[in-house]
Amino acid sequence: MKFFIDTANLAQIKEANELGILDGVTTNPSLMAREGIAGEAAIQQHYKTICELVEGDISAEVLGTTFDSIVAEGKVLAELHPNIVVKVPMIKDGIKAIKWFTDNGIRTNCTLIFSAGQAILAAKAGATYVSPFIGRIDDSGWDGMQLIQQLSNIFTIQHYKTEILAASIRNVNHIIMAAEMGAHVCTCPLEPILGLLKHPLTDIGLAKFLDDSKKMQ
Ligand code: E4P
Q1: What pLDDT sits at residue 217?
Q2: Which of 47, 90, 48, 43 is nearest to 70 (CA)?
């Protein structure tokens, strides 16, 4: 399973990248706004900076909701760097635009996926990635992981090339279960990525080893 970091914060992207396990970055308008990035030029520069920091796919989301505006924006974003993946919302015009991008060699990430039907449509349109939002499904009282399992089965049976990108990750368990259920990619905030490092027995064991090592000196 590939690891993407889900943030537009450069310090966090650098920290995750220094671990040596990062395969890409996802952003969305909320994450960009959180960093105070505003205006077309600043947004484009921020994407370029991220692309220079990380060797891997960088999802850049369009703001338009009509076919023409999504295609126009996506073309500009795709030209910023070869690693840009155009992130398109799961709406009717979004699907039409994903098909257009597919036919024109531009890679896409279909975002805001909450059902298997939506994911099937995006895969049929040729999306490079589909992003089911696990945490938001859980927040609504449903089971986000069930959707990952369902998509994993469908995509295997149907031989779809589209990759399942588990998004809206809230905790370490989400990451482990996404791996267990066959997600191709997991995009996570920095905290759950670092959370994977932790186990109290590791801390206790290391403290004992360090203590005993003093006896060897
Ligand atoms: C990533 O592509 C999504 O935009 C993101 O994971 C959404 O996460 P959230 O539900 O925590 O906002």
Answers
A1: 85
A2: 90
